[in-house]
Design brief:
By secondary structure, this protein is an alpha/beta fold. It is built from 14 helices and twelve strands. The radius of gyration is 19 Å and the shape is globular.
């Protein structure tokens, strides 16, 4: 496991002390207006103190109409800056890189939550969403850029652009959901224009020393593996980002598409020429052996989600004991509360993963 504790530098000049990253985990702990709560600051600061080389927030929506779930962190207003500034300070004080994930739910924004019709690249009767006008697409790009500027003002080292899980950027990338006929639709290059415009805008306005990452879905959500690979290739070729985060759901799986089976899903991304851009993945990375598998596949870092919920100090425990093995679920509420998860977080977990918490 020596590699797990090697420092990792990024093209922007930032570096993390080890190669274990806290995955961006939905937790519904923020206030109704998007301000950070004490509970969420506590949960994240504990992971930084526990030794994660990079501590990433849950998805932070860049526009009030882009909220995807109750209790979601916001970054669409300067009113969010005090809490974000406190969080950045606490994370960085522990020697961990502080990163905000920027997000817009698109047609996945519940109408009853946002109080309006959700928006999407194209009208969707299925999701009850209206299509964005050309000007609104440009405003969407600006929302992400301004979110990054707020993150920088708050003291964060950088941001990750959420382009996965069928949220709005993923919707633009998908020919299934993006049926536009302007420069934001049609070819994959056009469908990815929103993403690349956001990246270029953030790089221009936040500077070369600001950390920029992108999260992509490698398949599903109307994204064929071949197009996901082409998007990754284009990101690597442009050399404007610092890292790519593949949300694989399961790093051990083969592709869903029969034509690509016979090798791991990750291998299609690890074999690409990425220059100095770093590559990581999330999905059932749990044990030390799982982390080692990620490096063996050719990844530069591994993102831990549920394992980090169970052990706030997973990296430190592994550093101090090469034989460390994380707990297995289900675990008690008392254990999770001691690990810094609030009652609200536990309620969300119970709704998503009924077998996570013991009776």
């Amino acid at each position: 496991m020596t590699k797990a504790f090697e420092a990792l530098s990024f093209p922007c000049g930032k570096a993390m002390a080890n190669r274990m990253v806290l995955a961006p985990l939905t937790n519904t702990q923020s206030e109704a207006d998007g301000r950070l709560s004490r509970d969420e600051i506590h949960w994240l600061a504990m992971r930084a103190k526990g030794g994660f080389g990079l501590t990433m927030t849950a998805a932070a929506h860049v526009n009030v109409l882009g909220q995807g779930f109750p209790g979601q962190l916001g970054i669409f207003s300067d009113e969010h800056l005090p809490g974000l500034t406190t969080l950045a300070e606490k994370i960085k004080a522990q020697g961990s890189l502080a990163v905000v994930q920027l997000h817009h739910a698109g047609f996945r924004a519940p109408r009853e939550l946002i109080g309006d019709m959700p928006v999407a690249p194209s009208p969707s009767e299925k999701f009850g969403a209206r299509g964005l006008s050309h000007g609104e697409v440009q405003s969407l790009v600006e929302d992400f850029i301004r979110g990054a500027e707020r993150a920088k003002k708050a003291g964060f080292d950088g941001i990750e652009i959420h382009g996965a899980h069928n949220y709005i950027i993923c919707q633009f990338l998908s020919a299934e959901f993006n049926r536009r006929t302007d420069e934001y639709g049609g070819s994959l290059k056009n469908r990815s224009k929103v993403l690349f415009d956001i990246i270029s805008g953030i790089r221009k306005r936040c500077g070369q020393g600001f950390l920029i990452g992108v999260r992509l879905s490698p398949e599903r959500h109307g994204i064929p593996l071949s197009e996901a690979v082409e998007t990754a290739k284009a990101l690597f070729a442009a050399q404007e980002i610092d890292f790519l985060d593949i949300s694989a759901w399961n790093v051990f799986k083969e592709p869903a598409e029969t034509a690509f089976q016979g090798r791991s899903l990750l291998s299609y991304f690890c074999e690409l020429d990425r220059g100095e851009i770093r590559l990581g993945a999330a999905g059932k990375v749990y044990s030390p052996e799982d982390i080692y598998y990620c490096f063996e596949q050719g990844l530069d870092f591994a993102l831990l989600g549920r394992a980090a919920m169970l052990h706030h100090n997973y990296p430190n425990l592994l550093r101090d004991n090469a034989s460390f093995m994380p707990k297995r679920t289900p675990v008690s509420r008392e254990h999770l509360l001691a690990e810094g998860l609030s009652e609200q977080f536990l309620e969300y977990i119970s709704s998503m993963w009924p077998d996570f918490i013991s009776a």
